[in-house]
């Protein structure tokens, strides 16, 4: 059987319809991929927003703790200054006690020598 022009045209139409169907399927596939990408993008955006929010909270907490830390350091430095002052005062009083003791012992010795 030989191909007639009608059969050839019919085959061309069938090929074109097949190509159209394949193109349609590719478009549907691409549209499906696009939807997946949109959903993925939306999920990633949510994750990014959440991460940014956590980062902002962390920065706020760090600032708050830095203020508390500075206050503690300041208190510690004040206590250290007070301790140094007390230590100096203690050394001064100790020296005065030693001087008074020496004076008393000297007088006591002088008195004892004068009566003997």
Oligomeric description of these chains? single chain
* Helix and strand element order: H
Shape: rod-shaped
Radius of gyration: 49 Å
Structural classification: mainly alpha
Keywords: Coiled coil
Coiled coil: 34-86
Task: Provide an overview of this structure.
- Residues 34-86 form a coiled coil.
- Keywords: Coiled coil.
- The model has no long low-confidence stretch (mean pLDDT 90).
- The chain has 1 helix and no strands.
- 0% of the residues are buried.
- The protein is mainly alpha-helical and 116 residues long.
- The chain is rod-shaped and about 160 Å long.
- The N and C termini lie far apart (163 Å).
- It has one domain (1-88).
Briefly characterize the structure.
Residues 34-86 form a coiled coil. This protein has one helix and no strands.
Topology:
Layout: H1 5-115
Keywords:
116 residues, mainly alpha, 96% helix, rod-shaped
């Amino acid at each position: 059987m030989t191909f007639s022009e009608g059969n050839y045209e019919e085959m061309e139409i069938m090929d074109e319809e097949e190509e159209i169907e394949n193109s349609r399927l590719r478009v549907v596939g691409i549209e499906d991929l696009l939807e997946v990408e949109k959903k993925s993008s939306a999920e990633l955006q949510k994750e990014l927003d959440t991460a940014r929010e956590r980062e902002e909270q962390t920065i706020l907490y760090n600032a708050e703790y830095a203020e508390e830390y500075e206050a503690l350091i300041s208190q510690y430095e004040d206590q250290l200054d007070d301790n140094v002052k007390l230590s100096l005062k203690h050394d001064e009083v100790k020296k005065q006690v030693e001087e008074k003791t020496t004076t008393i012992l000297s007088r006591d010795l002088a008195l004892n020598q004068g009566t003997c």
